[in-house]
Structure formats: structure tokens, C-alpha cells
Amino acid sequence: MNSQKELQIGKKVQAFRIARGMTLRELAKDIGISASMLSQIERDLANPSISTLQSIAKVLSIPMFTFFKNENEDLLVRSNARKSIGIADGSDLKYDLLTPNTIGSIQFCMMLIPPTNKSGANPLSHIGEEVAYVLSGKIDINISGTTYHLNTDDSIRIPPMTEHLWINNTDEEVRIIFAISPPSY
């Protein structure tokens, strides 16, 4: 198993905090620990408890597993080596991460929506802004109750904290590239 030093959990906490525009004191207050303790965590001098990591992940709106991934600083993502993010609801929907990792201020993904399927049972929202580009296919997106029909090469902006749902009513897979800032997957 990787040690905390190898995983650099503190460095990841610091990178996400800075990407969110939060000060050390703001994050410490929001998660209920002292600024000096958070400083020690960020410098990998103190081991955060699981509950502290859960609080940090919640406040920063990132998945907790991100802290435990040992990611190098690769700049290149080969098409045959993309990381895929499955959906827990059992659907065939798939997200491919187009950026090398989940650290940074922006994240690019490709969503693959199978024929006659949708992005989830219910609309979702993210704390960040999202811009989507339809790489192939025809798709409907419902944003806050309004449905937009998009074709190949169309794009759309989804404002922060706006509920949205992608709906593929065709018999072909739809491929959508999207950027999210700050990252939320």
C-alpha cells in the first residue's frame, strides 16, 4: 500500500483548495479544524482522519478517492489509455477522462450515451460551469425545464448549479466532449 508521503494527500488538498479560490483559513473553518492543522496536512506533516478527508472532499466538491490516487504528472493521454468513469446506477453511460488526471482547474471528459438512453434517472448539477460539444450524434438536453436539441458540432454552456439531463432518443450512440471548471468528477 502507498504511504501518505507517496500519495501526497496534502499536496492534493492544497491544489484543489487553490483551484477553488479558497484560503487556508476558509477551508479550515468550513471543515471544522484549525488553520494550523490544515497547514500541517497540506505539507504532509500530519495525517488527516478519514472523517476530515470526507469533510475536505465535500467542501471542495471532489470525490474522496481522488486523494488516494497516485498520479504522475503525465501531460499526454493516449486514446487507448483513457481512464473511464462508470456510473453506479448500472446504466451503460460512460465517461472517459480526456485530461491526464483530476488535479487542475479544468477537466475534460467525453460522455458516451448509448442509444435510447439518458445521462441519469434524475437531472444533475455541478458547482462549476460546464461547456459541452456534440462530437457525434443528435441529443436533447433539458436545462432547468427547457429542452434544447443539439446536432453534431453544436455546443452549449451549462451555468453552475443548473440542473440538466442529457437524453438520447436515437438508435445511435452519442459522443459529447465537455469541459468542467472546477473539476467535479
The number of E-state strands comes to 10
Shape: elongated
Percentage of helical residues?
10-25%
Please give the order of strands in the largest beta sheet. Answer: 1-2-3-10-5-8
How many helices? 5
Cα Rg: 18 Å
Task: Supply the CATH architecture of the largest domain.
Answer: Sandwich
CATH topology of the largest domain: Jelly Rolls
Number of domains: 2
Give a short synopsis of this structure.
This protein is α+β, with helices and mostly antiparallel strands and 185 residues long. The chain has five helices and ten strands.
Describe what you observe in this structure.
The structure is a single chain. By secondary structure, this protein is of the alpha+beta class. It folds into two domains: 65 residues, lambda repressor-like DNA-binding domains (434 Repressor (Amino-terminal Domain), Orthogonal Bundle), CATH 1.10.260; 103 residues, Jelly Rolls, CATH 2.60.120. A six-stranded antiparallel sheet has the order 1-2-3-10-5-8, with no helix packed on it. Helix 3 packs across helix 4. The radius of gyration is 18 Å and the shape is elongated. The two termini are 24 Å apart. 22% of the residues are buried. The model has no long low-confidence stretch (mean pLDDT 85).
